[in-house]
Amino acid sequence: MAFLKLLISLGIIIAAMALPDENWTDEIQTAVKYSLLSSIKPTHYNIELILPIEEDIYRGESNISIEIYEETQHIELHLANLVVTESTLINENLQESKNNIKKSVYKPMRYSYIHEINSFIIYFNDKILPGNYILNLEFLGKATNNTEGLFRTSYKNEKGNTTWLFATYLQATGARQLFPCWDEPKLEATFTISVKHPQKYTALSNMPIREKYNVENDMRWTHFNTTPSMSPYLVAIAVIDFKTNNTKLDIRDDINSIVKSHFFNYSSMKIWFREEIEYESFAYYVLTFFTVHLELHWHMSSLKMIPKVDYIAIPDFPEKVIETGGLVLYREADIFHKPNDADIMSRAKLEYLISRNMIDEFLHDMPSWFKEGFGSFAFAYTYDKIHDNSRKMDLLVVQNQHESLRLNFYFNRNLLQINKPLEINSLPSSFRYNRAISILRMLQHLITEEVFQHGIKTLLTLKLFRRMTPETFLTTMQNTLNEFGNEHEYNLTEKMDGWMKHKNYPILKVTPDYAGCTNILLENFDSIDSDMYNLWIPITYTTQKNLDFNKTSHRNVVWVKSTQNVLCIDAFRHLKSDGWIIINLQQVGYYRVNYNTENWNKIAKYLNSMEYENIHVLNRAQIIDDAYHFLMTSQIDSSVFWELTNYLSREKDYIVWYPMIKALEYMSSVFPLSDRKASNIKGKIRNILSELLQNIGYNEDINKHYFINCLKQEASKWACILGEPDCHKTATSNLQQHLANRTTNK
């Protein structure tokens, strides 16, 4: 056994035959590319694993149904850190013919392995004709002690005994570490999993258990139902010695009717945890309640290809969460709270962890641009529907849309149509997908919440996701809009197609003309980005005299084509000379707005009055974010920025403060400097923070809204960094109280 461990750790392949001669090996290796040959396609895997918990070496057998489209003398597939001990190819086309029974079995002549790409090649003497075959492989594997492949971990139970746990974590090309396979996400197949394990343990996989029975040596076979067609890396297995919940929650009648009338049932969802854990039902409540609301608002049950989910709480687990279809692993400490820890903030974090992951599980078959974008959007929308005044959608705007605009400035690349692996890996994930969130939100406002929601339900119910492109997505939304009565004959594809493709965002340079029409200059267009010239920009606006920040649907939009460099908008005529204009209501449009100095100063004057809250919170945040961007790109004077931000000493909304906090992070590079300019900047910010903290206080209150505590944390941090005397005094006092009584004063 020790020798086998050494072989596996070195990635050596055991073969019954000799390797081919050098010329043939080199010839084959040169011909092989990073993707496997397209002439062979797997359709079904029948996998059996023998997992003796006390050992990290496991045995496996895989019978893979394959279709061969072209004549060949070798078969190539993936494996990593596995030892193949036996292989056979069976021709299903000839198997039933008694005269050809001997010809139906092909034994390999030799093997080859390309370590760089984990490619395992089986060579045969005879030519293999096109047809259906079964490839049988027997192999040995080694469980790792980290969360990669099949990993093994342990914990001490209340009696001090070591209890072991097996589970899988397969990255996009990680299935090759568990069993030999065609390990490319696009090569989907069905899987039938069977696990042999000690009787006192429970085996779980993607699908429900079909049957289980005990065998010799206190072992048990657990056989699972066949999965839907899916990528190999989605295969999941766990072998645990845990208990599960039997809780039934009291849910109000209207929600319970949804539970009864749709797919959802309590037995399809279980949480598994250590015997020593006192079960706390809040995590189960989140799972139940959020699942019901996802069905209510989005009909996500139509995506549910796997009929159950098992959630496993693992002690001292290094990852917060690992999700595959039907099986989810959590860090125990993140989903089970002690009673005195169950405050509003910690429960909110738990809700996010569980519910956001739940959405990912529903959407795992979606194209990545939609999965990441709509996943974040659906979480914020649904959370706001469940919790009054939670304002997750507002937070989504300042966190994701603002960050997307910042990244767009530095990485002027196509976000939604990236295909090359090197391009994918070179860009931050937030850069690739945050813009998709903004486009979905823009669309929701333009066609109205009701139409957007109905369109998404239609999309999910019709199971269009597997072949969905931005074009088919817009077509579905257009059809939905037409069903609701498209009285303006609004062409959604024409208006939104450019936003799905273009590489940058426009800047609107606005100069109000109080005698005639307001001029808008379109800037920030990349000359090499042809899609930018097909961009329709939705302009929404309000004025100080006729103040209304809710006019965001297409009925209130002035559409401007990007080919029109300078515009004179008649709709803006007759502005009052003493009033401001604000464009891009609630930041629905994915663009920045820069005004002339006169309009900026009018906005600043209004913000510094007692009426500042009349400006929508998202537009107050937009003003801060845009102004800082234009300050850093030398498009506005610093005096304009400081006049706009001076009012923040009275601003108690974390959403508005968020872009200013990001600005402080960028400004912090000058804080260590002692020159006059840096000192003036630090002095301005210190004064704003000092007055703010006098208004809101330093100490957090777990019963207050999450945002106010976030603001207190950030304001205190930056005040202390900038040397605000009261902040240092308060911090010293709190530390002394903590040291005096660490239990009471945490």
From TrEMBL:
Domain ERAP1-like C-terminal: 580-742
The UniProt record lists the keyword tRNA processing: no
One GO process term, biological-process aspect: proteolysis
Entry keyword set: Aminopeptidase, Glycoprotein, GPI-anchor, Hydrolase, Lipoprotein, Membrane, Metal-binding, Metalloprotease, Protease, Signal, Zinc
GO cellular component, one term: extracellular space
GO molecular function: metalloaminopeptidase activity; peptide binding; zinc ion binding
Site (Transition state stabilizer): 433
Membrane topology: Lipid-anchor; GPI-anchor
The organism's place on the tree of life at top rank: Eukaryota
Enzyme Commission numbers on file: 3.4.11.-
Pfam families named among the record's database cross-references: ERAP1_C (PF11838), Peptidase_M1 (PF01433), Peptidase_M1_N (PF17900)
Free-text cofactor note: Binds 1 zinc ion per subunit.
Span of the signal peptide: 1-18
All residue ranges annotated as the Peptidase M1 membrane alanine aminopeptidase domain in the record: 306-499
Record has ATP-binding as a keyword: no
Locations listed in the record: Cell membrane
Requisite cofactors: Zn(2+)
Primary site of residence: membrane
Sequence ranges assigned to domain Aminopeptidase N-like N-terminal in this UniProt record: 41-234
Similarity remark: Belongs to the peptidase M1 family.
Protein name (database record): Aminopeptidase
Source organism of the structure: Lasius platythorax
